[in-house]
Amino acid sequence: MSTNPPQLRPDLARARVSETLREGQPSVGMVSLGCPKALVDSERILTRLRAEGYGISPEYAGADAVIVNTCGFLDSAKAESLEAIGEAIQENGKVIVTGCLGAEPEYITGAHPKVLAVTGPHQYEQVLDAVHQAVPPAPDPFIDLMPSSGVRLTPRHYSYLKISEGCNHKCKFCIIPDMRGKLASRPAHAVVREAEKLVDSGVKELLVISQDTSAYGVDIKHAEVRGHRAHITDLARDLGQLGAWVRLHYVYPYPHVRKLIPLMAEGLILPYLDIPFQHAHTDTLRRMARPAAASKTLDEIAAWRQDCPDITLRSTFIVGYPGETEEEFQTLLDWMDEAQLDRVGCFQYENVDGARSNDLPDHVPAEVKQERWERFMEKAQAISEAKLAQKVGTTMEVIVDEIDEDGVATCRTKADAPEIDGCLFIDEGTKYLSVGDIVSVTVDEAGEYDLWGQLNGH
C-alpha cells in the first residue's frame, strides 16, 4: 500500500531541529524507533535537554553523544534496535540507550558492550543523568530559552499526545506490561494543558495514544482536577474544544466506548476508532487471554455505525497464533466479511522472548502462517478497495502532509492516520497550498488503499 513519505514515519524519526549551535554548545543526536508512544518519550527527553542548553544535532557524526530510543516488542524490532545502536556507535562512539529494549540491559550490552548507559522506558531522569555524565551541560541563560512548544520529531502540523503509560491487560503474546508496567494515567488537566500548547504552536491534529486508551483514568479513579476529569469521554470532549483534529488510537471496545460515538457525530473528535481486535474466533481469543465476544463486537460495530455513519474503523490482527486451526482462521475471514472494517493491518504470529504464548502447544508452521496472511490481506484489500470506490464523487476535508517538487500534495482524510493508513493525492492546483493546510477536495479516483482528488474552489 502507499504510505506517507518515509521522512514522516514516526518509527524512523531522527531529531531534525533547525538551529545553529553557538560556540562551545554541547549537542546530542537522537534516533527514535518503535511506536508513537516511544516517539513522545523521545520528544520529552529532547525538550528537557534543549531547556538545559544542549543543541540538537541532526547527524550522529556532529553530535557529542547519541541517544537511541529502542523498541523491544518483537524479536525483529529488537534486531532493528541493535542495528541502530551499532550504527550510532560506529558513527559517533558515545551512545546512550533507552526505551523498551532497555528493560533488558544485558541483551544490549552483550551485543554492544561499548554503550555508555542503558535505561528502560520512560526513565527520563536516568537518560538525562547519563547525558550529563557523557556530555556536561554548558547553558547560557541569555541564549538557551526553551521554545514553549518543546521539541517535536513529527512534522509541525500534527503531534502525538500520550495520555497514559503501561497496561493492565495480560495478553499472552505481549510483554508490554512487563516492560512499561501497569496502567498509569496522566492527570487530565496536564494532558489538556499540553494539548493547548501544541495547538497554540500550530498543531492541526492531535493523535491521542496510550497502551489502552479506553481505560484512561481507571487507575486514578477518574479523578477531577482543575475542572478536568480523567475519563476518556470527558477528555475527548475537552480536547474537542481546542479546534484541532482529535484522533483516538488503541481503543479497547469496552461498553463505555459507545459514549464516544456521539462526540464523533457532533464533529468534536474525528469519526475514527483504532481498535486492536486481534482475532475473531472465541477459542483463539481465549488462548490469547483476550475478551472472547466477537459476536457482541459485531453488534457494537453496527450500533456505532448507526449513530455515526461516517465512522472509520481500523484494527490489527494476528494470524498463525499457536493452536490456530483452519476452522478458526476461516471464522476470522467470515467475521471480516461481516465487520467490513475500513483500515486493517495484519501480522504473522512471532514468538517474543518472555511472552507466555511461547509455551503454548501446536505452533503453526511458517509456510501456513504466510499462506493465511496472504489470504487475509487479499480479503482486507478487497474490502478497502470497495469502500474507497464508494467515496468517488464525494467532497471531504483533507490535511496536507507534504508537497513534492512536482507540486503533488500528499494528504490524509479524516479516515487516515499518519503512516499506518492510506493517503489522498492532489496532482494539480497546489501552488498556493502549504503543509498543514486543511482543504476541501472532491474525490475523483480510488485505488486499493489511496484516493486522488481535486481541490475545490481552485
Give a structural overview.
With 458 residues, the chain is of the alpha/beta class. The protein folds into three domains: 6-134, Rossmann fold; 158-389, pyruvate-formate lyase- activating enzyme (Alpha-Beta Horseshoe), CATH 3.80.30; 395-455, OB fold (Dihydrolipoamide Acetyltransferase, E2P), CATH 2.40.50. Helices cover 31% and strands 20% of the residues. It is built from twelve helices and 21 strands. The protein has helices at 36-51, 75-91, 105-111, 124-134, 176-180, 188-200, 232-239, 261-265, 282-288, 294-307, 326-339, 366-389; strands spanning 13-14, 27-32, 55-56, 65-70, 95-99, 117-118, 158-162, 164-165, 184-185, 205-209, 224-225, 228-229, 245-248, 272-274, 312-319, 343-348, 395-403, 409-413, 424-426, 438-446, 451-455. The strands form six sheets. Strands 1, 2, 3, 4, 5 and 6 form a six-stranded mixed sheet that branches. It has a five-stranded mixed barrel with strand order 17-18-19-21-20. The longest helix has 24 residues, at 366-389.
